[in-house]
């Protein structure tokens, strides 16, 4: 099975968990984004499939971007976001994050969390532009390619936007 057409943004967690080829396509997008220039390592197809199999998992995938998250009761967590370098600054990261928030709200989440490397200015700018705010810091949570420890900034979106609640019916 190939990745969905650009802009389709379907929820794919169940398919990622069941379809190794789709998980491999997702892993390729993740690896292209986590290419050593930002803290964090590529996830394997098996890791992505394993994450997607957990209850509450949400996934969004286009040929150029991937988002993995989960919802547990009133809390959502954005676990991974990746856009291929060749497709950046075209609104894909924003679109997937907004879609995730809408889906999480529809699933009952009242707030959302994520962790991002303190040195990752592009990602922090994206989240801040969408209303996420820093709420804490984890010392030395990540390592960069040279092995240096880098802090994680915890960010929260609360409340999840009202418009997200009304548009989050799960339709692509
Ligand atoms: C962070 C990342 C996902 C952004 O993806 P993207 O598809 O390029 O993001 P968008 O085009 O939707 O950008 C939306 C907004 O985020 C901000 N932003 C994104 N990249 C930025 C950059 N390099 N510098 C400053 N602001 C940036 C801007 O406000 C941008 O809006 P604008 O283009 O209208 O100015 C992408 O750079 C990436 O994959 N990086 C490597 C992996 C990573 O860091 N993942 C997140 C870890 S938590």
Automatic annotation (TrEMBL):
<protein>
    <submittedName>
        <fullName>Ribosomal-protein-alanine N-acetyltransferase</fullName>
    </submittedName>
</protein>
<dbReference type="GO" id="GO:0016747">
    <property type="term" value="F:acyltransferase activity, transferring groups other than amino-acyl groups"/>
</dbReference>
<dbReference type="InterPro" id="IPR000182">
    <property type="entry name" value="GNAT_dom"/>
</dbReference>
<dbReference type="InterPro" id="IPR016181">
    <property type="entry name" value="Acyl_CoA_acyltransferase"/>
</dbReference>
<dbReference type="InterPro" id="IPR050680">
    <property type="entry name" value="YpeA/RimI_acetyltransf"/>
</dbReference>
<feature type="domain" description="N-acetyltransferase">
    <location>
        <begin position="12"/>
        <end position="160"/>
    </location>
</feature>
<keyword id="KW-0012">Acyltransferase</keyword>
<dbReference type="Pfam" id="PF00583">
    <property type="entry name" value="Acetyltransf_1"/>
</dbReference>
<keyword id="KW-0808">Transferase</keyword>
């Amino acid at each position: 099975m190939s990745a969905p057409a650009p802009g389709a943004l379907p929820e794919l967690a169940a398919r990622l968990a069941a379809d190794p080829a789709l998980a491999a396509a997702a892993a390729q997008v993740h690896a292209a984004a986590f290419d050593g220039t930002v803290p964090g390592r590529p996830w394997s197809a098996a890791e992505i499939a394993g994450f997607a199999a957990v209850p509450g998992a949400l996934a969004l995938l286009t040929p150029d971007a991937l988002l993995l998250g989960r919802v547990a009761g009133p809390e959502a967590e954005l676990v991974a976001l990746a856009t291929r370098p060749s497709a950046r600054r075209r609104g894909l990261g924003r679109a997937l994050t907004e879609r995730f928030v809408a889906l999480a709200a529809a699933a009952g989440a009242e707030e959302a969390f994520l962790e991002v490397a303190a040195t990752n200015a592009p990602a922090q700018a994206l989240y801040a532009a969408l209303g996420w705010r820093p709420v804490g810091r984890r010392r030395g949570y990540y390592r960069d390619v040279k092995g240096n420890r880098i802090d994680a900034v915890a960010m929260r979106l609360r409340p999840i936007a009202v418009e997200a609640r009304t548009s989050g019916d799960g339709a692509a």
